[in-house]
Design a protein that fits this description.
Blueprint (H helix, E strand, L loop, with lengths): L1 H22 L8 H41 L46
Length: 118
């Protein structure tokens, strides 16, 4: 009798776990629609990975070609080009007339009676 009580104590939790796990029908592979969705996800991931790999390969090939062109290019001798243009008329920056300041602070060249600026 002691043996059966231990079996019941161990088997009861296992049966509950088993019953609860099969009561939820959320497993993706149990239904045809779930299998279809998982197959589509796998297909999309595979195509994305292939597209990314193709882009990386193309970029590496372009970089390789560019490096080969740069190595095969022979640098030319440096040269300087100059040109001379004739000026139609001499040009100089406009210069303001000189300003004389008296001891009182008034401007000597000014004809208006404006106060001197500090």
């Amino acid at each position: 009798m002691c043996f059966t009580s231990r079996v019941h104590k161990k088997a009861l939790p296992l049966l509950l776990i088993f019953a609860v796990s099969f009561s939820f029908g959320g497993c993706a592979y149990t239904s045809a629609n779930g299998r279809r969705e998982m197959a589509y996800r796998h297909y999309v991931a595979k195509q994305t990975k292939q597209r990314r790999r193709a882009m990386v390969r193309a970029q590496k090939a372009a970089n390789r070609q560019l490096k080969l062109k740069m190595k095969s290019a022979v640098p030319s001798e440096p040269y300087i080009t100059t040109s001379v243009e004739s000026a139609a008329e001499p040009w100089s920056e406009p210069v303001a007339p000189p300003v004389t300041v008296s001891a009182s602070g008034a401007i000597a060249n000014e004809t208006d009676n404006q106060p001197a600026q500090p």
